[in-house]
Amino acid sequence: MNELMVAAEGEISVGQHLQWSVFGLTLNVDTVISTLLSAGIVLGFAWYLRAKSKSKVPSGAQLAFETVTVAIEKQVEQNLGLRTAPFVAPLAISLFFFILISNWLAVLPHAFEEYVRPPTADINLTLALALFVIILVHITGIRKKGAGHYFAHFAKPFPAMLPLEIMMEIVKPISLSLRLFGNILAGTVMVGVLSLLPGFVAWAPTAAWKLFDIFIGLLQAVIFVVLTIIYFGVAAAPDKEEAH
């Protein structure tokens, strides 16, 4: 499920991709290309910051990165502590920039749409990200508390809570992925609707909506990362009785 295609008759269909079949597997080529592009931009940004880090005068990009890093580290410290699971802050920073760039691909001109679309408007990517996060959350909780103690907390304060807790854990990756997917997909659908307007009229609302897409893309990246940190905090943070 992903984007939209605007047919010549003025119809909009959602969920169509440029697809290739490779060894019996069907690949959404536009999603693969966009994902690689987003990852490449993030890596290029990291190499740029590394080269500029030796400069005495920090660039605007470096200041922006440091601002995001400080904010994320503060969230990690408040929820579980930087030393409890040291990899959480780097993971959250990486997720933030990858999701942000992926979301912001929505602002590219319509001419790029066939091959480059926001990959986060594809449920396959957002669900994969959410499952990766949730599986890592459980692994971290087991490593920090031990399997017995970690799984026992699902039955607290009453054993009758166990089915509800299991259901909540199943829902977590679904809600985490659908929230991101739905918001970004809605933006692509809206651009498709606006493109049905005459060209001399469509440019103004389309430009305004793409500016709104920038804000939505940032907001959704923040929400995904904050929820990720909270999930790690619940799984790995010491219990109250252990902390005293």
Task: Please tell me about this protein's structure.
The chain is mostly helical. The chain has one domain (31-243). Helices cover 68% and strands 6% of the residues. The protein has 8 helices and 4 strands. The chain has a two-stranded antiparallel ribbon with strand order 1-2. A two-stranded antiparallel ribbon has the order 3-4. Strand 3 (19-22) and strand 4 form a beta hairpin. Helix 2 (60-79) crosses helix 3 (88-104) and helix 6 (162-194) packs antiparallel against helix 7 (199-236). The longest helix has 38 residues, at 199-236. The protein starts with a strand and ends with a helix. The relative contact order is 0.14.
Domain count: 1
Question: How much helix, percentage-wise, in residues?
Answer: 55-70%
Strand proportion: 5-15%
* Helix-strand category: mainly alpha
Question: Which sequence of strands runs across the widest sheet?
Answer: 1-2
Low-confidence segments, ≥5 residues, pLDDT <50? 1-10
- The total count of strands amounts to 4
Gross morphology: globular
Oligomer: single chain
What's the average pLDDT?
Answer: 84
- The Rg value, from CA coordinates, equals 21 Å
State the separation between the terminal residues, measured CA to CA: 49 Å
Order of helices and strands: EEEEHHHHHHHH
Major beta-sheet overview: 2 strands, antiparallel
